[in-house]
Amino acid sequence: MEALHATGVAASVAWRDSFASGLSGRDCEQKQVWGGGSGSGACGFRFPVLKVESRSRNVADCSGSVGSSGFGHRQVGGRRCSSGNYAVAGRASPSTASDDDEETYVQPRVKMLQDAVGPSKILLDAQARVCTGPTQTRPLDEDQAFKVLNTILQSAKGELPASEKASKAQMGAFFGAMTLRKNCFANKTQWSVGEQKAMSELWPALCECLPAEVLFLADPEGTIMGGSSNVGPKFSGSTPSDALLVSGLRKVMTGSHLEKEELTTLLERILPLQGPNGDVSDALLAAFMICSRMLGETDRELDAYCMTFDEELGSVPVAKVKSLTHYGEPYDGNTRFFRSSLFVAAVRASYGETCLLHGVDWMPPKGGVTEELMLKHLGANTNLIPKEAVRLLEDKGVGFAYISQREARPSLYSLVDLREHIKKRPPIATTEKVQRYIKGTGREAMLASFYHEGYEGPLLELVRRRGVQAGLVIKVGSMFSSCLGPAGFDDLAYERL
């Protein structure tokens, strides 16, 4: 697409009828590809497989085709296309990777957990069952419960290899979820007979080797396990950050919610994470994140998660453009189908509609292919801060930019490793899609997509609070969308796509 070509990010991609004909498989002219060569054949260029590998050794592949054609200097949609070597995020060399290359395109980063082990697959499988909502939770049977608790016990005793150990973050998420289920969930999703039996039999051994913060999460008031441990009622945390988390957890694990100001203070105090040198307990933070999600966030809480770090890098920069559309897809990418937002945004940019995408290179739980991975594979430099991206948006020969959460919200990006260990999406997975990294002087619109029903209303409310003129939220894989227009918000307004 033209904006990508003009910014030095993609192989030549056709516009208008050429683009449509490429997608439909019609023949088209010979095309230019990376490196200045040309080739013939079916209309379109193919993405080599992008391999995304996490510490848990999950691999996601993505391949697809996009229509393309010869690309000279031509006038399209009122914008002159040139072959200038701009970049969506600065200059970068085109990728020369083939389908057989092992390159992952995931930028190396310093790990931000205090406990650099695991995650244990056994625990992750259990978390997928029990770290979810009051109607979706699937209790463990007796064999599963004993297997999980024995894995935790062996991990705490140091009897497992580091790669197989349950991390403290996993222990925190698991026991926090178990406590919330015991205290608040309906009979169907409370503890099973097998879970109760396993906990009763192994609890004395767990009390001897688990750290205090994990024992607190397993029995915060000393009532769940019959008063056999007094650690929970007395626990207050070993650092000021932990004390805030303990205070919040005592509310959340009993079904209460935090006020916006209370949650904002907590987030500002604990983020960004500092890894092994930090003062924030992996277990406490993991439990807080997953329990908040399981309980269901209030509008006040979502507001705090969404807005707290808006000025982390200073005031939000402003682009002098007639229109600006923000695209916020789920940050964890796709593993099952091709995501087209990157190319839709580039096409719209070529017609004078300025577009801004944002995301990350890799994110749990899907760990799928993201817009940033595609851009890096196509040769883009994805390391611009928002102020630098403004220049690209204002450039009438470009009108298109990508911003990584890594550069714009380092505090939120520091949670990536924790999110891998808690397995399920935390509240931030909802709010990060509704970021306004740059403001526009003209009309602004915001587009976001989501996976689970029930989030269309809260997402549109966040869009409205962002101060843009229009919003659209789309359920991934659905035939329906919900919209916000100049007339205001209507949570019953659905449009068939």
UniProtKB/TrEMBL annotation:
User: Record's GO cellular component, any one?
Assistant: cytosol
Task: Spell out the SUPFAM superfamilies in the cross-references.
Answer: Nucleoside phosphorylase/phosphoribosyltransferase catalytic domain (SSF52418), Nucleoside phosphorylase/phosphoribosyltransferase N-terminal domain (SSF47648)
What residue intervals traverse the membrane?
none
User: In the UniProt record, does the keyword Zinc occur?
Assistant: no
Which GO terms label this protein's molecular function in UniProt? Answer: glycosyltransferase activity; GMP synthase activity
Do you know which Gene3D superfamilies this protein is assigned to?
Nucleoside phosphorylase/phosphoribosyltransferase catalytic domain, Transferase, Pyrimidine Nucleoside Phosphorylase, Chain C
Domain of life here? Eukaryota
Q: Which InterPro entries match?
A: Glycosyl_Trfase_fam3_N_dom_sf (IPR036320), Nuc_phospho_transferase (IPR035902)
Keywords of this protein's UniProt record, alphabetized? Glycosyltransferase, Transferase
Q: What is this protein called?
A: Anthranilate phosphoribosyltransferase
